[in-house]
Amino acid sequence: MKKIIAFVFLMSFLPSLNSHNLEAAISSEQRSPKNITRDSSRHPYETLTFFEIKPNMKVVELSPGGGWYTEILANYIHKPGQLIAAHFDKDSQRAYFQRSRASFEKRIDEDPLFKDIEIVDLSSSLAEPGSVDAVLTFRNLHNWLGPQMDAIFANSSKALKPGGLFGVVEHRAKPGTTMEMMKKSGYVTEEHAIAVAKKHGFTLVARSEVNSNPKDSASHPGGVWTLPPSLRLKDKDREKYLEIGESDRMTLLFKKS
């Protein structure tokens, strides 16, 4: 009996493969080593803590791409919590969207870490009305500028519970940047992000500079994709852009009114 008690006591100090602890989820060996190298630029612990994400929440991640944040969220969120990934529409006519969705689904199917994730179309209602605790988006707004951004924000608001959280990280344009330049550069002004959020029933409750980068001028030949990790110009001025690092980003927390 004493041996059993000692074993249980010892096991309580060992890290779980799936953790309710955010720090453990971020440091988990289940994460891709390539993704981990970006932690110093993306500050996942500080960002998710600022967004008040808890492991028992029902969370929608909008347009997760290859799953950089999905890795962390899937490890951190557990029943009764749930993670929903709103990826490119399954019936999209764009080849890139089709490939990206198929690649994401393949990864979800093959990795036990993602076994409890639900995948929905980005253009869908996301979840049952009033059923979600938080909706998160990381570096996506520039892809949605125009009617699509309105639709996604509206659906996010409908899916959230009253008082639900809406967390936004986005490449930050200088105040006064035109819509045309935002679309071209991949940087979005805080003013525009806040205005669209307010239009769809959100109240800004906090801002964070955790993902800011004062080295980034937000003015580059190839837009935000000039900087790492994209490095659109390849070897041209590569060291210069590596020295700047990833983009300057706004980090905004809204609540459903």
What do these coordinates show?
The chain is built from twelve helices and seven strands. It has 257 residues and is α/β, with parallel strands linked by helices. The protein has a single domain, classed as Vaccinia Virus protein VP39 (Rossmann fold), CATH 3.40.50.150. Mean pLDDT is 93; it is low at 1-17.
What's the total number of strands?
7
Biggest β-sheet strands, sense, barrel: 7 strands, mixed
Q: Strand share of the residues? A: 15-25%
- Secondary structure tally, helices: 12
Alpha-beta classification: alpha/beta
Q: CATH architecture, please?
A: 3-Layer(aba) Sandwich
| CA-atom Rg in angstroms | 19 Å
Helix content: 25-40%
Write down the overall mean pLDDT. Answer: 93
CATH topology: Rossmann fold
Strand order of the largest sheet: 3-2-1-4-5-7-6
Shape: globular
The number of distinct structural domains comes to: 1
What ranges have pLDDT less than 50 throughout 5 or more consecutive residues?
A: 1-17
H/E element order: HHHHHEHEHEEHHEHHEHE
**Head-to-tail CA distance between termini:** 55 Å
- Assign the CATH class: Alpha Beta
Quick recap:
The protein is an alpha/beta fold and 257 residues long. The protein has a single domain, classed as Vaccinia Virus protein VP39 (Rossmann fold).
Salient structural properties:
alpha/beta; 257 residues; seven-stranded mixed beta sheet; Rossmann fold; single chain; 7 strands; disordered N terminus
Secondary structure blueprint with pairings:
Layout: H1 2-11, H2 22-27, H3 33-36, H4 39-42, H5 44-50, E1 58-62, H6 68-76, E2 82-87, H7 95-110, E3 118-121, E4 132-138, H8 141-144, H9 147-159, E5 160-171, H10 179-185, H11 190-199, E6 202-208, H12 238-244, E7 249-256
Parallel strand pairs: 1-2, 1-4, 2-3, 4-5
Antiparallel strand pairs: 5-7, 6-7
